[in-house]
Design goal:
Strand order of the largest sheet: 1-2-3-4-5-6-7-8
InterPro entries: Aldolase_TIM, NanE, RibuloseP-bd_barrel
Structural class: alpha/beta
Number of domains: 1
Largest sheet: 8 strands, parallel, barrel
CATH superfamily: Aldolase class I
Number of strands: 8
Helix content: 40-55%
Keywords: Carbohydrate metabolism, Isomerase
CATH class: Alpha Beta
CATH architecture: Alpha-Beta Barrel
EC number: 5.1.3.9
Function: Converts N-acetylmannosamine-6-phosphate (ManNAc-6-P) to N-acetylglucosamine-6-phosphate (GlcNAc-6-P).
Distance between the termini: 62 Å
Strand content: 15-25%
Enzyme class: isomerase
Bound molecules: N-acetylmannosamine-6-phosphate
Amino acid sequence: MTRISDIFPVKGLIVSCQALEHEPLHGGDTMAKMARAAVQSGAIGIRTNGVPDIVAIKKEVNVPVIGLIKRDIPGSAIFITPTLDEVKAIVSAKAEIIALDVTNREERLESVKPLIEYAHLRGVLVMADISTFEEGLAAEKLGVDFIGTTLSGYTPYSTQQEGPDLVLIQELSKLVNIPVVAEGRIWTPEDAAKAKNAGASYVVVGSAITRPQLITSRYVKAVSNFND
Ligand SMILES: CC(=O)N[C@H](C=O)[C@@H](O)[C@H](O)[C@H](O)COP(=O)(O)O
């Protein structure tokens, strides 16, 4: 059975290269270039959304890929790899790891079991995107390979804050026996160092590196009082 330490023998930074259809950088070519830039500078892995981007990135760089598929299902709040269809597509695209929602909503902690099993039977590891400490513990019990704090702040009952959820990273890192991935709203190298020092084995940074429109708006906001 493959383990996370086989896939990522060293700990480090994983860069999330994602641009949805409405975003300016949407497209496999652009995301592959983003991934190349990230790997050139020392990223140990890439997280990305959708089969075309997974395939383009795997052609471009030689580091493990965490694949997910964002899909909106009417009437459901679960959008990160919601069903077995997406899991199958990610396995076919040959991502080494599948990221999926493991939150305590809509009976997900039960319905996600066959998705985890499908991936594992095909030698693909599973990253659980969770939003609270309890969900992290539940994810470990479900047999996932590592846990990301990705959805903290994105479920109505989780901590809402501007920066990374360092408390969650720290509590989970102390209590679970699988690696914890710090992910979500890590905007600065200082945030990344704090996440690492809180006990995370891996740190995922997305928007702060790969979403120029969001980066720009932070700078615009910072100088918005120029003419006062
Ligand atoms: C909540 C959600 O949909 N998160 C997504 C999960 O894949 C991505 O849109 C984020 O960019 C990713 O988690 C990295 O986080 P940040 O971009 O904050 O560094």
